[in-house]
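Feature request, filed as a ticket because there's no other form

It would be nice if the structure record came with a short human-readable summary line next to the tokens. Right now we just get the raw output. Example of a typical job, pasted below so the devs can see what we mean:
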Amino acid sequence: MPMREFLDRVKAHFGYLFDDYGFTIEIQECYKMFGNCLVILGAGDCRIAIEKDRSQILVDIVSPLSREEKFPLTSIVGFITRLDSKPYDPSEGGRELYSEIIGEAEQWVRLGSLLKQHCQAILKLFQRDVFEQEQELLREYIRRVTREYVQRIAGCPKPGGGMSAGSALG
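Raw output as currently delivered:
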């Protein structure tokens, strides 16, 4: 995908970041061999990476403490909504958003909408002082959700339920 087309899609689906929150493009790269593209948008302490990697559209929020550390949008939304009456399940949402079945066009729409819906809470979480306080809770949440997702797709029972290793061995 040419960079111009990629930037047009970023602006079409994430234009509110520029218009409402003052984001600017800090980095833009295109890798012609695979048609992959990346932009990093920034405003204040917050950086958002939007990437096309083959047939997937990926949105990550970059740590304000280290630009090397990124968190998937779906995991961030799950963390932010974890105490809500209907929390967002990042493993379900992630599968829904990144599935090749829905295609690129629908991924753009869904990710743009998901970020827009939770943008203010994400911007607050990724302020340096707030993130410093919440980062370990966020990492633990992502580890737990990832572990549960792997167990679910592997067909393993949740800890405390089903057979234990001792009972399976006799």
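Something like this underneath would help us a lot:
Residues 157 and 164 are 9 Å apart (CA to CA).
The chain has one domain: 3-154.
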